[in-house]
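Handout, section B. The chain below has 166 residues.
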Amino acid sequence: MDAKELINYFNLEEHPEGGYFKEVYRSKEKIANKNLDNQFIGDRSYSTSIYFLLTSDTFSAFHKINQDEIWHFYTGTALKLHMISTNGEYSFVIIGSNFLKGEVPQFTVPAQYYFAAEVLEKDSYSFVGCTVSPGFDFRDFVLPSCSELSRKFSMHKEIINRLTHH
């Protein structure tokens, strides 16, 4: 299947950070807010997961959430996941299926890291899944502007400028 067929087949919708997504799992059980760290407002599901599709003609802009986020590779071509830690350290990982080239099929982005993603191969896509625990809630989602993130991490202006919405 190509990207358009996957988007239609799985009824994916545009995501505010870029790409397309659909929530496919949200646990019915909840964690009470009193049992969560103070960065959370309200109760959370134990866990959530989504399908996420990114094409090479766009990117997933730098954003952060309060939880660890596990990325799982399904099909398509590799994607590069860029991260900036809470203390400003930049790193990246390649998520894909070419293990002999150092690609990994699964990777966990630590909570509070800013992260962005891009498909490496021109005219292609990456189809992945993302699992979050405690479960995702848009109250945990921060999508900073280019200027805001550049002020915070000026040493990474070039990559921030390329992978944020202006």
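Note. The domain at 3-162 is CATH 2.60.120.10 (Jelly Rolls). Compare this with the example in section A.
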